[in-house]
Amino acid sequence: MKKADLTEFEIEEENFRLRLVRGCAASAPTPAPATAQMSAPALAPAQMTPKALEGNFIKSPMVGTFYSASAPESPRFVEPDTRVSPNSVVCIIEAMKVMNEIQAEMSGTITEVLVENGQSVEYGQPLFRINPA
Fold this sequence. Notes:
The chain has no helices and ten strands. By secondary structure, it is an all-beta fold.
């Protein structure tokens, strides 16, 4: 899972279900997707200028749909000026009907949210700009 940069994998067939979660001792309930829109402008990797690509980023570990909160009525996991640690959940990416909690994997302060809630994201796409500390 580390080699492929996967945080979660799930397969289900008839009477068999297997779910693997990297870096988690116990399985947490799967959160519902959020639907509220974020106000931050979204930049696809192709739209980013060389200047926009400077800095440190939390990038998407998979292709899927980005959600900023665990449910529509829930607060966002992070916003600009939020301090995070490596284990802080920063968003959810839905892939193949599985909700994957994405962790910061570094300490620092979120300085910019680069995608909108409900937006499709690609593998390696920057999701957040972070000032490491």
